[in-house]
Amino acid sequence: MTILLSTLNARYAHASLGLRYLLANMGPLQEQTTLMEFVIGAKTTELVERLLAKQPRIVGFGVYIWNVEETTRVVAMLKRVAPEVVIVLGGPEVSHETDKQEIVRLADYVVTGWGDITFPKLCGEILHGPKPLMKIHAGVQPPMADIQLPYALYSDDDIAHRTIYVEASRGCPFKCEFCLSSLDKTAWPFGIDSFLAEMDSLYARGARLFKFVDRTFNLNVKTSQRIMQFFLEKIAAHPDEPVYAHFELVPDHLPEALKATIAQFPPGALQFEIGIQSFNPEVQTLVSRRQDNAKAAENIRWLTTQSHAHLHVDLIAGLPGEDVDSFARGFDQLVALGPHEIQFGILKRLRGTPIIRHTEPFGMVYDPYPPYTVLATDRIDFATMQRLVRFARYWDLVANSGRFNHTVKALLADSPFASFMAFSDWIYTRTDATHRIALEKLARLVQQWLQLRGMAPAEAAALLASDYAGNVDKPARQAGKPPHSAAEPRKPAAPERQVRHLAA
Q1: Do 351 and 357 contact (CB within 8 A), yes or no?
Q2: How far is CA 119 from the centre of its chain?
Q3: By the 8 A CB rule, do 94 and 104 touch?
């Protein structure tokens, strides 16, 4: 193949939608272009060997916050052993602050932003002339109708074993400064008829797990209704073949018509990812986030009580202007609303995002290495931020894992945040670890903590047994939650929702 399209995914299950878009839009060059996807953690020499075995003239890499360090090593080695191979970079991580990145220095060309038209054009110039003079090429945004949809490029193996990422629109009209989508002018929809025809084709080929990466799925309610109706019809026609659809929702925009449609979905068919990020109005204003908190809370409460949808709701710690007490109040408020999972994320300074304007006024200190996590602010010192990081990890292991559904309620008897922070501090003193804690050991520690808090040993054991049915390795499945193998991993290797949609 003359042109290789490659990236390092966070996991094997994360098939790259972005690379498939590029391949679908290569035009006359498509026949001499192929995909080679890898997974982070692989040995650099092996990746380079496999790439060069195809004898490419051009290698295009999708570069993201979770793979930039490893991709930099791959590019550096390629340039040493095969300097004649032309390296082209694209993706959100190299679309901003290009002058500050080692991977950009090593590469031959960079396409920033939209690559659907610009990347094939650049490849044609590299292969056939005239040779491009500029290193950085700003991606041209084509009309949405001119973009070839990539879904036929998911292989049968992808459909059988990997998450099928899809998008009915690109962009976002909101301006939340911690998100790269704040740079978009608006949201641009694909033609709904052609999009649904592609979804029908995927379904006919056996796809049953659809993850929408639209930033604002419910922005246009008529479009949302048509897409959801598509899935309802499939469920009605084939009740023995479960369908699972994942959407990101704007929390304060849930009109009655959309509620009526959502209420029709059976258990295990629907997951909503909802970004609250902060319930503090002053913090929301600082980061240009428009959100009706009362309406958002009302909608989350409705979804938890009146629908079978599984709710995954996000909060971000470390935003400018927010101290621990403010975050704790928001966390307690969200726990009271009863979502199935709360993703407790720590702020990341994504390249190009306007959040940088708050760095000096609010003493924001960020890790210089990916994923650029905030280390301290003028409201939260480094030691406290590390406690929050551990809280987030233990919360994932205990509350979000689905293994302690009954027990976790006892852990949150008083203020949920204060109670779990005390547990988090204690368990860290006992383990000095946040990873590689065996499930059986974790269960014992949870029981010990409950006893330290005054629960009788027999009662604590019975509570854990209600989750584990007497076997720590066979936790009871969370009601209404799809099997873990049929859903996006609860704790992705990539960072939280703040950057997760960049996988597209």
Answers
A1: no
A2: 25
A3: yes
Q: Is 71 inside any structural domain?
A: yes
Q: What's the rounded Cα separation, in Å, for the pair 188 and 168? A: 9
Give residue 469's pLDDT band: very low, low, confident or very high (50, 70, 90). Answer: low
Q: DSSP string covering 358-399, please?
A: GTTTTT-EE-SSTT-BEEE-SSS-HHHHHHHHHHHHHHHHHT
In a domain, 225, yes or no: yes
Question: What pLDDT is recorded for position 449?
Answer: 96
**CATH at residue 16:** 3.40.50.280
Owner of token pair 């808090």: 453
In a domain, 428, yes or no: no
pLDDT, position 276:
96
Q: What is the pLDDT of residue 185?
A: 85
Helix, strand or coil, per DSSP, at residue 483: coil
pLDDT at 491: 38
CATH number at residue 282: 3.80.30.20
Q: What's the whole-number mean pLDDT along residues 289-307?
A: 96
Q: Rounded to 10 degrees, what is the CA torsion of 220, 225, 231, 233? A: -160
- Tell me the C-alpha distance between 336 and 348, whole Å: 26
Q: Does position 447 have pLDDT exceeding 50, yes or no? A: yes
- Residues 405-419 as b/e (b if ≥16 CB within 10 A, e otherwise) read bebbebbbeeebbeb
- Domain enclosing residue 91, as ranges: 3-143
CA distance 316 to 499: 12
- Judge if 195 and 218 occupy the same domain: yes
Same-domain check for residues 119 and 166: no
> Do 93 and 30 share a structural domain?
yes
pLDDT band at 483 (very low <50, low <70, confident <90, very high): very low
Whole-angstrom Cα distance, residue 94 to residue 178? 17
The length of the chain is 504
Q: DSSP class of residue 285?
A: H
Provide the sign of the torsion angle of the four alpha carbons 231, 236, 237, 240, taken in this order: positive
Residue 498: what pLDDT? 55
Residues 254 and 284 in one domain: yes
Residues 153, 157, 160, 165: is their CA dihedral positive or negative? negative
Q: How many domains does the chain have?
A: 2
Closest to 217 (Cα-Cα) out of 264, 166, 169, 148: 169
pLDDT at 503 over 50: no
CA atoms within 13 A on the CB side of 382: 4
As a whole number, mean pLDDT of residues 246-265 equals: 95
What pTM does this model have?
Answer: 0.91
Q: Find tokens 């001119």 and name the residue.
A: 146
